[in-house]
């Protein structure tokens, strides 16, 4: 990990500058870095796409997108957009890269960026390989500054396509120059998993099969597919959420302690954890995975009648699964994961359910309690309200001896939340600083795809009975049965 000075020097070339992601997330993130002083005098943003915009039109668009997130204090909008430029560019036309290279070189001189170049691909993934090849063949790589590539998801649609894409990228960029975005890794509480585990003896000493009964990861959304139906119908929840976000969260929960807290060591441990994730046979896949598709609700069509969705679509909008790790630490401990659209709420959380005491001595007490001891649960709240809680058993106040659950809670204050950068801001900053801790390595991505491909293959060869869940619930009944089979239940029902 190379940490540069706090002020970043670079020309950022953005492919897909007129796109939705750029407007909603990327310009506001860069502006926030500017307001906080991480970007100051020595940077420039060069937006590109086919639209024939001038620099001025681009600046007006950037201004419009940052207006939505912050007021203009002390002329900060003007100061920021003076660093923003635009070059009309068709990524499939090699000749266009010559002009792009000239513009980058001019900006390097103008802003003293020490020839550091960061390329950000915020475009349809089918263009990623072409852009990388042209960057190399048309001589856009810097000889004496850094060259980095930030690449948007999805990284392939299965293992083979991801491998091919990786091959194309690594013909131009080394693995340590590639920053594969997974915005979950930019979330405050996902990053907090390591602090909670490795910074607390009280937690890490219990973090194994001797004390943990099961771990549950829930990424619940209350919205449908909205305007992204065209993309989503080709993807489904397995590719859209499980292969990337869920696997990344699970890897952080399951990994061994890194030797040091560096990007290389952390990514290595996450990769090892994913390597120890049991790859299911088709029979095991069918038994351990549940899929769902939402039905019509009070305020929504059923999925198959959403605009842009095939009326006979078998794309899943819900996935629940039981994962197992073949490692000493996790022997016999299931990780139950689930995600879906149009569920009961918008929240992301991890529930670590501990084993009960081997002996419930209170059941023999004179005033024997009616309520059995509960399992302790450590909950990591990722969204929307970052924090964590620990549910313990405590004596109920009063005569007799009855136990009841008592909860220790910690939530981020409004002040802390205000200090917490948005995922894209954090990740942009990390890439500019050369810190790849919170980006997925090729090894992690490869293992995640190999795991998911088996499930996809099984599902693609069977006709599910869809729709099978009601909007506003936590998914199909089979997801509850998945745990009930093991004598367990979801912490959030
Ligand atoms: N939008 C979102 O919420 C999210 C998006 N992503 C990912 O981010 C990436 C971008 O998504 P999004 O912004 O939504 O996509 P959009 O479709 O909104 O934007 C695509 C961009 O590509 C440009 N473009 C298309 N063809 C060419 C070409 N031949 N040469 C140069 N530019 C071209 C378009 O501009 P023009 O037409 O002017 O050429 C436009 O700027 C994708 O990989 C997506 O999966 C990931 C998570 C969320
Ligand atoms: O990557 C994606 O994530 C969002 C959910 O992200 P969150 O930060 O709001 O939890 C999801 O809606 C989208 O389908 C998926 O592509």
Q: Which strand order does the major sheet show?
A: 8-9-10-7-11-12-13-14
- The structural class is alpha/beta
- The value of Rg in angstroms is 25 Å
Which regions have little confidence, pLDDT < 50, spanning 5+ residues? 1-5
- Corresponding CATH superfamily of the largest domain: Dihydrodipicolinate Reductase, domain 2
- Distinct helical segment count: 15
Mean pLDDT: 95
User: Distance N terminus to C terminus?
Assistant: 42 Å
> Which overall shape is indicated by the principal axes computed on the Cα atoms?
globular
SSE arrangement, N to C: EHEHHEHEHEHEHHEHHHEEEEEEEHHHH
The count of β-strands is 14
CATH top level of the largest domain is: Alpha Beta
Largest sheet: 8 strands, mixed
CATH architectural designation of the largest domain? 2-Layer Sandwich
Helix content: 25-40%
Descriptive labels:
eight-stranded mixed β-sheet; alpha/beta; binds the ligand O=C1O[C@H](COP(=O)(O)O)[C@@H](O)[C@H](O)[C@H]1O; 36% helix; Dihydrodipicolinate Reductase, domain 2; 14 strands; six-stranded parallel β-sheet; globular
Describe the structure.
The chain is an alpha/beta fold and 493 residues long. The chain folds into two domains: 10-152, 3-Layer(aba) Sandwich (Rossmann fold), CATH 3.40.50; 185-485, Dihydrodipicolinate Reductase, domain 2. The protein contains 15 helices and 14 strands. It has helices at residues 20-35, 55-67, 76-81, 96-111, 128-137, 159-170, 188-198, 201-204, 229-254, 263-275, 282-288, 414-419, 423-433, 442-460, 477-484, and strands at residues 8-15, 39-49, 84-88, 117-121, 147-151, 178-180, 212-220, 289-292, 318-323, 335-340, 347-354, 377-383, 387-395, 403-411. Strand 1, helix 1 (20-35) and strand 2 (39-49) form a beta-alpha-beta unit. Helix 1 (20-35) crosses helix 2 (55-67), helix 1 (20-35) crosses helix 13 (423-433) and helix 6 (159-170) runs antiparallel to helix 14. The radius of gyration is 25 Å and the shape is globular. Bound molecules: NADPH dihydro-nicotinamide-adenine-dinucleotide phosphate and the ligand O=C1O[C@H](COP(=O)(O)O)[C@@H](O)[C@H](O)[C@H]1O. Residues 221, 240, 348, 383 line the site of the ligand O=C1O[C@H](COP(=O)(O)O)[C@@H](O)[C@H](O)[C@H]1O. Substrate binds at residues 183, 187, 221, 240, 341, 346. Keywords: Carbohydrate metabolism, Glucose metabolism, NADP, Oxidoreductase. This is Glucose-6-phosphate 1-dehydrogenase. It comes from Limosilactobacillus equigenerosi DSM 18793 = JCM 14505. Residues 14-192 form the Glucose-6-phosphate dehydrogenase NAD-binding domain.
